[in-house]
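Title: Comparing notes on inverse folding

I've been comparing how different people in this forum approach sequence design from structure. To keep things fair, I'm posting one structure and asking everyone to reply with a full sequence. Here's the target:
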């Protein structure tokens, strides 16, 4: 009663399992990896620990476009529908043949499946047909995909 009537109080609770109906079932203890995998069916986010971390490898389709893909760690519940980014092109870079190319736009979503996401990095002065590394410049960069309900 005192917790409910006290202003600015904190009520902390853990180890609760809500049930439907009148009969309680045994308490379910799930390890972190299982819970994470269930969450990644709906949303997957790639972050970086340092600048120049690699998101993926890909290939140049032209002198300004590099396409790439990733495979999700678990199968998503449905096809990924969009890409989420840090919101600034300055967080991303393409490395090709020993040269760093700053991106001119944030990565773009091409298409997704429950298993894979395809995306595009854009820059300048690249060589079509060559391989690339799609990477971060700083720790603000991230790529995320959603298969929300």
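Reply #1:
Here's my take.
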């Amino acid at each position: 009663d005192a917790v409910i009537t006290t202003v600015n109080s904190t009520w902390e609770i853990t180890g609760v399992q809500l049930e439907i109906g009148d009969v309680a079932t045994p308490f379910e203890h799930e390890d972190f990896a299982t819970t994470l995998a269930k969450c990644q069916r709906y949303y997957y986010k790639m972050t970086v620990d340092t600048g120049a971390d690699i998101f993926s490898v890909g290939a140049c389709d032209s002198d300004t476009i590099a396409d790439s893909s990733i495979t999700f760690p678990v199968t998503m519940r449905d096809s990924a529908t969009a890409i989420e980014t840090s919101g600034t092109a300055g967080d991303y870079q393409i490395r090709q043949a020993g040269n760093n190319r700053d991106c001119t736009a944030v990565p773009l979503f091409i298409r997704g499946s429950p298993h894979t996401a395809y995306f595009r990095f854009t820059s300048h002065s690249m060589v079509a047909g060559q391989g690339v590394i799609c990477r971060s410049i700083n720790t603000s960069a991230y790529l995320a995909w959603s298969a929300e309900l």
